[in-house]
Every structure is written in C-alpha cells, then in structure tokens.
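Reader question, answered in our methods column.
A reader sent in the components of a multi-part assembly and asked whether the whole thing could be modeled at once rather than chain by chain. We filled in our standard form and ran it. Here is what they sent:
COMPLEX SIZE: two components
ENTRIES:
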Amino acid sequence: MIIPDPGFLLTHYNYWTSVLLVMIGLYAMLAKKNLIKKFIGLNIIDTATFLFYISMGDVEGGVSPIIAHGAGHGAEGVVYINPLPSVLILTAIVVALATTALALALAIRVYEHYGTLDADKLAEML
Amino acid sequence: MTDLASHLPVIVILLPLLAAYLTPVFGYKWKGSCVPVALAALSLNVIFSYLLILQVMEHGPIHYYMGGLPPPWGIELVVDYLAAYLCVIISFVTLMDAIFSKDFILRTLGERRRVYYYTLFLLLTGGLLGASCTGDLFNLFVCFEVIAISSYALVGIAGDGKGVLGAYKYLFIGAIGSSLMLLGIGHLYINTGTLNMADMVVRLVPIYISGAILAGLSLCVVGFSIKGGLFPLHIWMPDAYAGAPATVPVLSTLVIKVGALALIRLLFCVFRPPFITEVIPVTTLLTWLASAAIIICSIIAISQQDIRRMLAYSSAANIGYVFLGIGIATPLGLEGGMLHMLNHSFTKACLFMAVGAIISMTGIYNIRDFGGLSKRMPITMGAFTLAAFSMVGIPPTCGFMSKFFIAHAAIMSGTWIFAVVLLVSSLLNAIYFLRVVNTAYFGHPCDELKRNEAPLSMLVPMVIMAIGCVLLGVCVEVPLAVLRPAAQLLLGV
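And here is the structure of the entire assembly that came back:
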C-alpha cells in the first residue's frame, strides 16, 4: 500500500470533494424514503461528476483557450486550459436537466395517483 | 449516387431524428399525419441500413468523420460489421413496431398522445442507431441518454399509476447507470487524453494496470450492464414492461441489445481480448452473471401471473444468453451471442405484439384467463405459439440455432457447465411458455367464443415477425455471413 504524501492529497482537494459528493449522493439515494429526495441524491452524484470533469480540464495558471487578437498560433509562454471537458460537461448538464425535469413530472403523476411519494408505501401498493 | 453512398452512416442516424422533429410540427395541425411521416422515415431507413450493410460487407468497416474533421479532434462514426448488423435489426424491428402501433396506440392512448408517442419513438430509434454506429465514447454516452430519456417517457406515456411508477423506477435506475457511465468515461479520458475508441486502444496499452483505468473500466461495465439489463441490474424491467403500452417493450428489447453492444465495444474494441480475458477476467464474471440471469430469471418467470411480467423476466434471461456468448469470448461464442441479439429481437417483438393485440382486443393479461383464446384470436395465438417455440428453442426456429451455437462454444472452450445451464434453461422456458400455450388452446374457455381478431395493421407485422422466427432458423447462414467477420474483427484473429 503506497501512502501518498499529504501535499498531494491537499493539492487535489477538488477530486476528494468529488468522491465525497458521490458518497453523499449514494447515501441519499439508498437511505431516503421520499422519491424526490432520492432524486436529489442522484443530482448530487451528477454534480460530483461535473466537478470531476471540470477539475481534470483545469491547468494551474492556464487561461481560456482563445487566441487574442493579433497574436499568432500558440503564443509563447501562454498556458491554456483544456476546453474539451467543459464542453462535455455542458452536454452532460443538459442531459441531467432533462432527466430531472422528466423525473419531477413523473413524481407529480405518481403523487396524483397514489397520494404519497414514500418509496416503502408505494412498494406495498404495487 | 456515390456522393449519397459515402454519407450513408450519418443519413441512417439523422433520418429518424429529423422525422422526430417533423411529427410534432405536422401533428400540431393534422393529428393523423404522424403515422405516414414515421412510416416513411422508418421505411427509408430500412433501405439505407440495407445499403449500409452491403457496403460494409463489400469494403469492410466504414469510418465516417463528422464535419470532415479527422478522429482525434472530430467525432468519428465507425460502422463495422456488428454496427451495420444491428442497424438492420433496429430499422426493421422499429418499422414493424411502428406499423403495429398505428391502431394499437390509437386504441390505448387516443389520437393526441399518438403524436407524442411517435415523436418519442423516432427519437429513440435515432438514439439506438447513433449508439450502434459511434466510434467516440462521449458520443456513445449522449446517444444512450437520448435513448434513455425517450424510453422513460415512452414507458410512462399512458399516464396511469402503474405506468408512471414503472417509468420512475426505470428512470431512477437508468440515471444511476448514466452517472456511473459518465464517471467511468471521465476516468478513461483523464488517463488517455482522448475519447476516440480507436485512439484510446493505442494509448491504453502502456497504462493498463493502473487503479484509475480499472476504476474507469468497472464503472463503465456497471453502467452498460444497467442499460443492458444484465442480472442483477435487471430490476427495472418487470415494472417498466408491465406498465408500458405493449409496443414499448419491443423497443426496449432493442435498447438492451444496444447496451450489450456498448459493452462489447468497451471490452473488445477499447480494451483488447488478452487483457479482459486473462489479466482482469471481466468475461469470466460476465459468464457467471449471465448464467445466474438465465436460471434465476427463468425461475421467477414461472411464478408470474401477468403475462407482461413473465415476458419481462424472460427478456432478462435472454439477455443472459447474449452476455454468456460474449463472456465465452471465442469466435463461436461471440457469433452465438450476437446471433441471439437478432433472434431474441424478432422473437420477443412477435410475443409482445401478440400480447399487445390480446390486451387491446380483450383486455386479458392474466395467464389464467387465457382459456379459449385460440378460438377468439386464432392468428394472434398462432404467432404467439410460433414465437414461444422459438423461445424454448425447438428446431427449426431461430431460438434453437443461437442456443446451439452458444452451447457448442461452451463445450469447445471446456466450460461445459454453461452448456448444462442452457439445457436447464430450455426446460424452464418450456415450463412457462407452454403453460400459456396450453391454457390458450386446451384450457377451459371462459365466457364467449366469438371470433374477435385484431385488425390487419396489427396482424401483418406480427405474422411477419413470426415467419421471421422460422426463416432465420432455417437460413441461419445469412446473419452468420456478417457475424463471422464481426467476431474475427472483435477478437483480432
């Protein structure tokens, strides 16, 4: 077992936050009874994924990859961040939004029909 | 013509998506217009997929660069033998299902919802075709989300209690799968710096045994297994299938096939065979999970009274055959698994169409009430029986051929235990399918015996599917001509 030095752990705190958020989200999904709260757990996992992607695209001291007016290709000494993860996450955010909207719409319908959003009570009725 | 032919991969994907935007536009004014638009798009798609597979058979896999940008920067579509094969299956089965839906959805959902139904139907078709043809991992995720969101909505489209709860359950489990998939793809991307599958293969080789790669692999495998409905992640299937209109499970049958395809892509195209069979034996795990799926889901299916739930568990068992074939990871095993994708799509489509016709004409879905149904709906029950025989695996139906191939592959690779699993499962299938057939033909008829056959628009696709079940069993060489090179390409032999 290799134990990384504390400095490594501290400088990568955004990844640890992402791991922590996934755990919190999983806990909410498993332990909460309310269907909407369960779904909030899923949104937390999604957010953790977004954080993970955005963190990996970032470069320390990097600027947004737009070539300034007048400057040629790859100006000297300028570090750009990786724009691809941000673009990917824009797509993933839209997807998460659509899923959330659909889930809430379905939750309203479930409540209309059964009068409860408690997962245990719903399981008994089904 | 040559110009059109070079753009076939993207046309096949965009055609249903384009039609999906046209249906609500025209449907807003003319409610009935959704049917001709959908049928025209899907018929054209069948022709284009057929041209595509001809092109692939002649010239080998097609690489299409979206927007003309070469792979590491642009999105690449890769139509190999397996993708072209799946495109043909998807186009054909969705066309049949769309014809069947014309009257079926009108009866069950009404005219207004039929427009929404066809819109979602076409979106789902576009997503399925996109997911089978893509050569880019993130694009695969996006296509899976298109599939997932439209199929959640389709399951709950009836708006009744059972449907929305089934849809919520499906959405919940499916969304977990999507998140895990996204996280896994992130792990692979952060380590290789590319999302293109062909590019990733090369860059993965020096860093195979690292914690992050293995985490990415396992997250993706779990994500795709949820989409593919592999045991024990199949739990969304029974409620979703029982709550949805009977044409939706036909599409869902295709969704789980594409889940299996994505797993094949990940295991055999991104990670290469020696790694996944020997270093990290994912395939061994798959074979055991698949065997558990086959036996356990078949046993649960026996205890079901609702025929839709019974068919759902049967689907969960049948996707087990596909994964078993993949897990054996020999050319013969892969051929058998991929052949079962085709055979199960046809057979299950026929079964669900028959059940849909029975439910819409008589309202019966409990197997106990099936008595005398053979007199009331002779053609429907005839098609159901033929497909049931195919499920059990009675020669010369197509179900026999794929089971035979997988069992043969299991024995050849020295894991004879899986051949035993297949034999036992055939017996279990016989128990639950022949129970239905027995009740329908020889059970006590309930009240009326008036002939009450489904309309022609439901009968024609159902009968075509039933004939297909037999034809594919007899002409097994036709799909095999595509699958042999497909298996060789995947295994790299």
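What stands out: Chain A is about 70% helix and 0% strand. The two ends of chain A are 48 Å apart (CA to CA).
Send us your own complexes using the same form.
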